[in-house]
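Justification of resources, computational component.

The compute hours requested in this renewal are based largely on the per-chain cost of generating structure records like the one below. Each record pairs the submitted sequence with a full structure-token output. That output is archived, and it is also reused by downstream analysis tasks.
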Amino acid sequence: MTYKPLITEFFNRYKYDDIEAYLRLGGFSGLTNVIYEGKDFAISELKDADIKGRGGAEYPAWRKWLLAKERDEEKVILCNADEGEPGSFKDRDLLNKDPYKVIEGMIIAAYVIGAKRGYIYIREEYDHIRRKFITACELAKSYGLLGVNILDAEFDFDIKVNTGAGAYICGENTALIESMMGKVGRPRLKPPRVGEKGLFGLPTMVNNVETFVCATTVMIHGSEKYCSTGTVNSKGNKVISVSGRLKSPGTYEVPFGITVDELINQIGGGPKGEYPIKFVQSGGASGPLIPASMFHIKYSYEDFEENGFSIGAGSMVVVDEKTELIDYLIAIEEFFKHESCGKCTPCREGLNQVVKILYKIKRKTATLKDMEKLERVSQVMVDASFCGLGVTAPTAIFSALEYYKGELYQNVAMEDVK
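The structure output for this chain reads:
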């Protein structure tokens, strides 16, 4: 398969402390284009490119920017770089290998919506990247690209770098904002939504790292070129994290519309070792399992939705036949049990019960009543949890029950189970 990277076009072509190299590559021409063409032009280009939020929510970026633009009061920009989903690491590489595209995207967004302050929340495990990003921001300021009167456009904007303590829950926007304000990183009740009352009580426009990078790419090259790949409803390319039992795991930019099989065997190099691939988990630990029988489907929002799968933030964890399904499920649910903030009962107590039952299945002491309880508790978590952690934590279990029910039930201590 041949395709030309566009979102990651500058990977490994400059270093974080060499802003002039980024400028020579065409960096900050997107910002120049927006200042010259105007804010409505930027919104129109975003709409034509149809960039959906790359943090997993898939909310149209143009709509979020337009709503923020129409608010007259003081507002702030926030870049969510708290990449805590197991199997996700593409934002790490975007920050590490192309920090100025992130910075440029934030500046463009600030100009369009009329914000003077910007923040980026980088997870604690990325401390080495945080230090590089601070240096990149300082260099941008020294070149008149951050700070006062940017590009003589009577436009002021600066970026402050914040760091988290490594809590998975802080990937949720309200929990992230609570953490930044010195409170416990727990999700808060909505409404008001962060677009109305967010950081410091101000309207806050939050986008994922990749969303800002995609916006920069569109403003540099134009929506027409950006949309030259992909499908009708999933335009352009996607940056993905591919890991697991593959010969070539890593961060890749791929066009929407390729098949899952192509992702595994052409992009990822095929299975590592003698065992065939059993399934992939798409969208991180909170995503569904895609069995090998479904590898023919296209990697696009519409095809995944039609088949009950999720693009999410763009991670693909590949699992081969050597791995026991129950061991994989235990690892996932133990993670969510550890990371649950404990605020709501369905998530806190539900995960405790789920993990207990999974261990009973592994020990072959589970009964039919345990299996019924597993499904019931999981559904209560989906219906009643306060935030997305509890809602999506059982996703892999539902997938396993749909595609591998026989394998799970063979360990159940009931002879009459069908």
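The chain has 18 helices and nine strands. The radius of gyration is 22 Å.
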